[in-house]
Amino acid sequence: MQIIERRVISYIRVSTQGQGKSGLGIEAQRKAIADFATREGFELVAEHVEIETGKGSDALDRRPVLAAALAEARKIKGAVIVAKLDRLSRDVAFVAGLMAQRVPFVVAELGADADPFMLHLFAALAEKERAMISARTRAALAAAKERGVVLGNPNLAEARVMAEASRVAAADEFAAKIEPVIRAIQASGVTGLRAIARELVARKVETRRGGTWTPVQVNDLLKRLDRAA
């Protein structure tokens, strides 16, 4: 569905009351959307902030603020804009359901040219990666148990296993979040490690530790994605 006017309704979501009260994540999303809108020439008409989990394909019933954002965007014949795709949902079925609402979506981290097909694809990739992360974590715990680690007891060996499994899972989850951005950059013709790093910096995408991308970090992330494929 084509955007008739370049007016957009911003939608910001955090998953917990604690995040909502502290503003954790809200300001970062707000800034990413504002910077993107300015750069791309979109007019921000209104902002909607919601505190709710995105889990589940039927989550729209539990997200009245998102429903209101959709209604307002439909009224002004504009679009809903989010900072990242996972602010809509991490569930491909839910994202597909949103597409059926016939309201365009703009995802700042993916760029203004990401069409509905790309959004479906990126959501499917993220969902698959989460399933693989879960499977790898279970495999790590099973291997630890075979080595004699008594899971469920607060001993040092278990703590080390759990810490390593958690570290790997966190790195894999971060890679899954960044993959849509990397693929979009590559699809635009930018393929060199240094060029990709520059593009990530230009899009204000931070590393997992909140730093600036380097070619080495891009290479490490691409290798991680290749191993997960």
List keywords for this structure.
229 residues, four-stranded parallel beta sheet, 8 helices, alpha/beta
What does this structure look like?
This protein is of the alpha/beta class. 56% of the residues lie in helices and 10% in strands. The chain contains eight helices and four strands. The protein has helices at 17-22, 26-40, 64-76, 92-99, 116-146, 156-187, 193-202, 215-228, and strands at 7-14, 43-51, 79-82, 105-107. Strands 2-1-3-4 form a four-stranded parallel β-sheet, sandwiched between helices. Helix 5 (116-146) runs antiparallel to helix 6, helix 6 (156-187) crosses helix 8 and helix 7 (193-202) packs across helix 8. The protein is globular and about 60 Å long.
SSE map:
Blueprint (H helix, E strand, L loop, with lengths): L6 E8 L2 H6 L3 H15 L2 E9 L12 H13 L2 E4 L9 H8 L5 E3 L8 H31 L9 H32 L5 H10 L12 H14 L1
Parallel strand pairs: 1-2, 1-3, 3-4
Helix pairs in contact: 4-5, 5-6, 6-8, 7-8
